[in-house]
Specification:
The complex is a heterodimer of chains A (497) and B (512). Chain A is an alpha/beta fold. Chain A is built from 16 helices and eleven strands. Chain A starts with 8 loop residues before the first helix and ends in an 11-residue tail after the last helix. Helix content of chain B is 39%, strand content 19%. Classes of the chains: A alpha/beta (497), B alpha+beta (512).
């Protein structure tokens, strides 16, 4: 088999199961790739080479013994550093957790292990998943493999870049306001934010508990579906996990059919504010869907304009509470413990030293928004907006089967370009945030390169809660049509590193 | 009068209680925390056993490790509903947990999962009885809410002079207690109790404890901290608006509840009478002095930034479940006390004695075994309680069972034993000499029922006291007691006194 790092997860799994290649060879090829290109990309914060090879050996032993294997057995994966992995560094991109090794596995990791998916290491991210560029990582930014001077999106820029740099065929992200989808969009990869509660959050270091959702990332819709199926499903450790059968996303990805499907174009998520090349590729993708037999219908979601405002009250409020525990008392960084400072002072000095500026900004915003006397005006009001946005979605899904929009208003911007302008950075997520507020599922998949900068553009597909299979049905069909047109997946056009 | 003392709300000398209460009406409010006796913690499967080595009953969840998530313990919800039902509360159809945010090292997440404006149980009451010079008086204490939360870890401060976190050289935290289910029971302000406020407070906490123990949801030991009470109190001139309240913590016994209320009334009246003002603050009660000292001032209310806990789904107990729990409620202590008084034909004081002796359940079991109520009470609160007190053990740890008492009573009824011999049987049981039959056999305990032997003993006694025989025969029958006593003595108690008396009178040809 030619370069193992350029294969899809489905092909690799099949090759391993049929003994065309060993899992160890596949893992080693990816470790070698990481060694050769990650100096430029910086997708990984920590490579777990030893445990990855041990996992791969175990898979090969199963193959030799004829033990039945899962559909992704032996396939390597990059794990966003926000998910606890027993015994391995887990920092959430923050200095405050430097050196912490969790004594337990997150449910996602436990399921990856159970599926014999080989975990290559922990991928870079904005600190505590706060950001849209991975520039807020305390360990330095990740670079977009399409153009190393540009951002790979965020917060899950490490996972997306690892895919785009062919360092891993699979990756796990987490999506609170677009942290899976926007990186997928700007790196020409595929990412899915499942319905809230579809994948267990147990072991995901919480940013905003009511919005957070782990999900699958890959270079193709089918690979994404296979990973989705491996990690989804009810978890008694997560009270907000859905106790119902997972929609058959793999079958949907294979069926890949939009004939007769009613596809809603959200009029509030297009036009002004969207880069010309993004709008152009988006319009072409809608044409393609129409040609494939879908009915394209314009749909209005009037409350979406309030989504960003509501999001930036709910997220900081929950984050200010979730991040309180990082106080230097039990794990991670402790600063200022000179025997003279009081407990409160040690906590304050630790947090001052351990958190980056974006984290502090959001903790202060959230602390203010939850304060007595302001709660109703801010948090309470934001929750009402959230209800209105959910109603917008419900009304839209009365008329259509899925909704679409561009995933992000622009292609990848330059590193540093928006770092000093939080509002400009926040606006990147304007199209992805309503999905998290409503708790529904959405996918981003590549639809071409913007003519003006030659960078990937993504389309977002949104489906009703617990109907994640529709994302794959539509995404699979669009991907197949575009692949036919281009002769290959868009990612194949990424420049060599 | 020191103005400095007036502003900080402290006075050196307190008025005595009669003086203090004569000018003011107190308003009390009681917040009681109860650790539930569930097997596992509130959000995880860790054990709740008391006394394990530090930090051995912990996991990622109760340590609040990054990424961990809570899951509600259904048994704790059930216990809380049962408490709510016992306190005549409405049970919410839908309620949420909330985060109470504050930084403290005994709090692993730096927020406590509690309930804020949506308690599981609300609007109830508990009737309590206090003794007054005019007889028992029933006071209805209204319950504002019963809500669920989690306990914190336990801090030990090493070094330093204060034993408090400030000034300690270092502090150690034991998280075994972190996450143990805790419920908080909050009364509405209790008004109109006047000078009885201390007694009402104590009676309320006592009765609440009785209810909780009857429900079997907690051992409610105040000394071990599984039940803790905070006393809120304000006073005001009759008819005036309520005064500023203080909150007294560290009230660790039923007696302390009463003392803390009394002391706080005295303190606040002293402050007001000396021209000062009562400040809103937390105070700490000291068992040794019976007084409290000022803790932190609450003039600037802490902002806990409550918001609904997003990691948990709402608690929505079905009406079927609530009805099922309602149908399986045990008899409430007040109802039980009334029933036992009627059934056993005893007054409240006698019942209280039984309760104080820890004998109620034993007496009930003995009655259930077939012994009549008076006899059951007589044995447990007489001979057996005396032995228990003498040897310093609890009544229920003596090796005497209700079945033993039933057997002894049967032997008495058949004339084989008398009370004196029965006491020896119990002595044998407590000494571990075997069963009732074993003790009777080994100690040769049996009433002498052979008429011949008894008559011989009577003749011997008469011969020894001819003057007494004369008296009896001349009609002074009460003198027979001396002869009966002599016979009992010569038979070492193993005779039936009534039978001896009958034989004696027959012998002397005297009739009663």
């Amino acid at each position: 088999m030619n370069d193992l790092t350029r294969q899809s997860a489905a092909v690799l799994a099949d090759a391993i199961a049929t003994k065309a290649v060993t899992a160890v060879e596949v893992t080693q090829a990816h470790l070698d790739r990481i060694a050769s290109v990650d100096g430029k990309v910086h997708a990984f914060l920590h490579v777990t080479a030893e445990s990855a090879l041990a996992q791969a050996q175990a898979v090969d032993a199963k193959v030799a013994a004829g033990t039945p294997l899962g559909p992704l057995a032996g396939v390597p994966l990059g794990l966003k550093d926000v998910l606890a992995m027993k015994g391995e560094p887990t920092t959430a991109g923050s200095k405050i957790l430097e050196g912490w090794r969790p004594p337990y596995d997150s449910t996602v990791v436990a399921r990856l292990r159970a599926a014999d998916i080989v975990i290559l290491g922990k991928t870079n991210m904005d600190e505590f998943a706060m950001g849209s560029s991975t520039e807020h990582s305390a360990y330095g930014p990740t670079h977009n493999p399409w153009d190393l001077d540009r951002i790979p999106g965020g917060s899950g820029g490490g996972s997306a870049a690892a895919l785009a740099a062919f360092e891993a065929p699979l990756a796990i992200g987490t999506d609170t306001g677009g942290s899976i989808r926007q990186p997928a969009s700007v790196t020409g990869t595929v990412g899915v934010k499942p319905t809230y509660g579809g994948v267990s959050r147990y072991g995901q270091i919480a940013l905003a508990s009511s919005l957070d959702q782990p999900g699958p990332c890959a270079r193709s819709v089918l690979d994404t579906a296979l990973l989705h199926a491996a990690i989804a499903g009810h978890d008694p450790r997560d009270s907000t996990s859905i106790n119902a059968p997972v929609p058959d996303v793999v079958a949907a990805a294979k069926k890949a059919d939009v004939r007769g499907m009613r596809i809603g174009v959200v009029t509030e998520l297009m036009g002004d504010g969207y880069q010309a090349g993004v709008s152009q590729r988006y319009a072409e993708a809608l044409d393609t869907l129409r040609e494939l037999g879908a009915e394209i219908i314009e749909v209005s979601c009037p409350h979406f304009e309030y989504a960003l405002g509501a999001y930036y009250l709910i997220l900081p409020s929950e984050a200010s509470s979730n991040l309180a525990r990082f106080d230097g008392m039990r794990y991670g960084l402790r600063a200022g413990d000179d025997g003279k400072n009081s407990v409160e002072q040690v906590m304050a000095i630790t947090r001052e030293a351990g958190f980056g500026p974006e984290v502090k900004r959001r903790i202060m915003l959230g602390t203010y928004a939850l304060s007595s006397g302001y709660y109703d005006a801010y948090y309470g009001q934001a929750q009402k907006v959230r209800t209105l946005i959910t109603r917008d979605f419900n009304a839209a899904f009365e008329k259509v089967d899925v909704l679409v929009s561009p995933t992000a208003p622009t292609t990848a911007f330059k590193l540093g370009e928006k770092l000093d302008d939080p509002l400009a950075m926040y606006l990147n997520d304007v199209a992805t945030i309503p999905v998290n507020l409503a708790g529904i599922g959405a996918m981003s998949l590549p639809i071409g390169l913007a003519p003006e900068d030659g960078l990937p553009v993504g389309m977002q597909i949104m489906a009703p809660a617990m109907a994640d299979d529709r994302l794959y049905l539509a995404g699979g069909a669009l991907e197949a049509a575009l692949t036919d047109k281009w002769g290959h997946l868009l990612i194949e056009e990424a420049p060599a590193l | 009068m020191s103005t400095q003392n007036m502003t900080n709300g402290e006075v050196d000398v307190y008025l005595d209680y009669d003086e203090a209460i004569s000018g003011y009406d107190p308003v009390i409010g009681l917040e009681t925390h109860v650790e539930l006796g569930t097997h596992s913690k509130m959000w995880c499967g860790c054990s709740t056993n008391f006394g394990a080595d530090s930090n051995t009953q912990v996991c990622p969840v109760c340590l609040g490790l990054p990424g961990s998530m809570p899951v509600v313990n259904r048994a704790a919800v059930e216990s809380t509903i049962r408490i709510g039902l016992a306190l005549n509360c409405t049970i919410a159809e839908w309620c949420r947990f909330a985060r109470k945010n504050y930084f403290y090292p005994d709090m692993p997440k730096d927020y406590q999962i509690s309930q804020y404006d949506e308690p599981l149980c609300f609007d109830g009451y508990l009737d309590v009885t206090v003794e007054t010079p005019d007889g028992p008086q029933v006071v209805r204490v209204e319950i504002e809410r019963v809500h669920m939360e989690e306990d914190t870890g336990k801090l030990t401060h090493a070094g330093g002079a204060t034993g408090r976190i400030h000034g300690a050289d270092y502090s150690l935290v034991d998280y075994n207690r972190a996450g143990i289910p805790l419920i908080e029971i909050v009364t509405k302000p209790v008004t109109g109790t006047g000078r009885l406020a201390p007694e009402v407070a104590r009676a309320y906490v006592t009765e609440l404890r009785n209810v909780i123990i009857a429900l079997g949801v907690s051992d409610a030991r105040m000394e071990e901290g599984s039940m803790r009470c905070d006393v809120n109190l304000s006073i005001a001139v009759p008819g005036a608006e309520w005064g500023t309240r203080s909150e007294t913590k560290n009230v660790n016994s039923l007696r302390s509840v009463e003392r803390a209320v009394r002391s706080e009334i005295e303190r606040q009246a002293s402050v007001l009478n000396s021209g000062g003002r009562v400040i809103q603050e937390t105070r700490h009660f000291h068992e040794d002095t019976g007084r409290s000292t000022s803790g932190r001032s609450k003039e600037q209310a802490e902002d806990y930034r409550y918001f609904p806990e997003p990691d948990l789904v709402p608690v929505a107990p079905s009406r079927e479940w609530v009805d099922e729990l309602r149908a399986t409620m045990p008899e409430m202590p007040a109802v039980k006390r009334a029933r036992l008084q009627a059934e056993w034909n005893i007054n409240e004081f006698e019942l209280q004695s039984l309760a104080n002796a820890g004998a109620i359940e034993l007496v009930e079991a003995t009655i259930a075994a077939g012994v009549d109520a008076a006899a059951a009470r007589k044995w447990w609160t007489g001979e057996l309680l005396r032995v228990a007190n003498d040897t310093g053990v609890d009544l229920d740890s003596l090796s005497v069972t209700p079945a033993d008492i039933k057997q002894v009573e049967a032997l008495i009824a058949s004339g084989s034993l008398n009370d004196k011999l029965a006491r020896q049987v119990f002595d044998g049981l407590i000494n571990g000499e075997g069963t009732v039959d074993d003790v009777v056999a080994k100690r040769g305990l049996a009433v002498v029922s052979d008429d011949g032997a008894l008559l011989a003993a009577i003749d011997e006694a008469l011969a020894a006291a001819p003057d007494v025989a004369e008296k009896i025969m001349s009609g002074k029958i009460q003198a027979a007691g001396a002869i009966v006593g002599a016979v009992m003595k010569s038979t070492k108690g193993q005779a039936d006194a009534a039978k001896v008396r009958a034989l004696l009178l027959e012998r002397l040809g005297v009739s009663e």
